[in-house]
């Protein structure tokens, strides 16, 4: 099996699982007409979906409406099961900024039929991720901002204080269902402002003015 690596603190880290959280910002749920869930909405992406900073985004031929969703991404450094919320941040090795790409037309069809979102969320290149800042370089992840520019225009601005389920809770919750492992990535949800990508677009991401990433759309 091919291993997928991410850069963290100058080292290559093997990616394990990719967990994603849906509807974690109320304004984004509202813009898509979705209800707020009582517990985190969790879905997975395969490691083949990873697209690293600087690589081109290749839009899938089976969709005519691929959307960007900008998110804070966590890199798990220490695994565990039934992690206490108070201990959760100690399990994070680094913080990144990424795009959860979504084939919105395919997702809408799946939702209408009550089917899984895997095709809409897990295609090749659908998990765009920067390299990772060491956790100590983002001392207050629960109080930080991030943004996304499409062709120079700000399209999304996020503030982690607006998360419906905060970072510590997400890690604790996931660890009640899954055994977390070093190298796991957690996409923590997107704020409002999602929109369509088109060939020729340039996407620039920024996390707390400390971390930047860029993706060109082929």
Task: State the main characteristics.
about 220 residues, alpha+beta, eight-stranded mixed β-sheet, four-stranded antiparallel β-sheet
* Secondary-structure-derived class: alpha+beta
Roughly how many Å is the radius of gyration?
16 Å
Q: What overall geometry do the principal axes of the alpha carbons give? A: globular
Helix content: 10-25%
Overall number of strands: 17
Q: List SSEs in N-to-C order.
A: EEEHEEEEEEHHEEEEHEEEE
The first-to-last residue Cα distance is: 27 Å
Question: Average pLDDT across residues?
Answer: 94
Which residues sit in consecutive blocks of at least 5 with pLDDT less than 50?
none
Largest sheet: 8 strands, mixed
Question: How large is the share of residues in beta strands?
Answer: 35-45%
Task: Please tally the helical runs, counting DSSP H or I stretches of 4 or more residues.
Answer: 4
List the SSEs and their pairings.
Elements: E1 5-8, E2 11-14, E3 18-22, H1 26-31, E4 41-45, E5 50-52, E6 66-68, E7 70-76, E8 92-100, E9 102-103, H2 104-113, H3 118-121, E10 127-129, E11 133-134, E12 145-150, E13 153-159, H4 167-177, E14 185-187, E15 195-196, E16 202-207, E17 211-216
Parallel strand pairs: 3-14, 5-10
Antiparallel strand pairs: 1-2, 3-4, 6-9, 6-15, 7-8, 7-14, 8-10, 8-11, 12-13, 12-16, 16-17
Can you give a write-up of this model?
The chain has 218 residues and is α+β, with helices and mostly antiparallel strands. The protein is built from four helices and 17 strands. The strands form four sheets. Strands 3, 4, 5, 7, 8, 10, 11 and 14 form an eight-stranded mixed beta sheet that branches. A four-stranded antiparallel beta sheet has the order 13-12-16-17, with no helix packed on it. The longest helix has 11 residues, at 167-177. The mean pLDDT is 94.
